[in-house]
Amino acid sequence: ASWIEFKNKQVSRRRIDLLGLDDSGLTALAHEMTHVIFADLFQGRQPPRWADEGAAMLADTHDKQQLHQRDLELAVDGRIEFRIGELFALDQYPQPHRVPGFYGQSVSLAAFLARRDDPVKFVKFIERALDHGHDRALREVYGIDDAADLEIEWLAHRRGARGYHGVRLTLDDRRPLRVAE
């Protein structure tokens, strides 16, 4: 877990707790470190929950990302997934029964945007979304009119994807480090 304290719109404290020194604790470090880096990167402003969690999960192992993919598929099958506009509007975590789907959809959308163009644009998009809202940020960074148009693109991508379709930015001893698949 990571804990970040803000004071006067700046990060004043950072803390990462790992549950041990086994592989699961070490693999969680990249995820938790992403939260800390995002807090600093956005100058003490809380990035949108979906983007913060989605980017952090891009640092998870391939196997863990597969579990998030499964959670997304279960949410879609159970019709409890989020509309993109709804996901963008969340400032807190959703109701407990929707949390797994939230994580799966967040990482899927973050991966989709990071793969759509230069991954650096994803960070620019989040920064602009904090300043001007998601729809304006989508237009300025990706040339997408609004959340509804992004949803159309993302759903079309999901329908065409087979199995795992994320961006792997992980150190995984069974696979070489890659920026995109």
How confident overall, as mean pLDDT? 82
Oligomer: single chain
Topology, number of strands: 2
Estimated helix fraction: 55-70%
Query: Could you give the order of the helices and strands?
Result: EEHHHHHHHH
Q: Uncertain regions: pLDDT < 50 for 5+ in a row?
A: 167-181
Largest beta-sheet details: 2 strands, antiparallel
Widest beta sheet: strand line-up: 1-2
Shape: globular
Structural class: mainly alpha
Beta-strand content: 5-15%
State Rg. 16 Å
Query: Helical stretch count?
Result: 8
Q: Measure the end-to-end span.
A: 28 Å
Q: Can you put this structure into words, describing what you see?
A:
Strands 1-2 form a two-stranded antiparallel sheet. Helix 2 (49-57) crosses helix 5 (99-116), helix 3 (62-77) crosses helix 5 (99-116) and helix 6 packs antiparallel against helix 7. The radius of gyration is 16 Å and the shape is globular. It has helices at 23-41, 49-57, 62-77, 84-89, 99-116, 120-132, 134-142, 147-160; strands at 2-7, 10-16. The longest helix has 19 residues, at 23-41. With 181 residues, it is mainly α. The chain has eight helices and two strands. Residues 167-181 have low confidence and may be disordered.
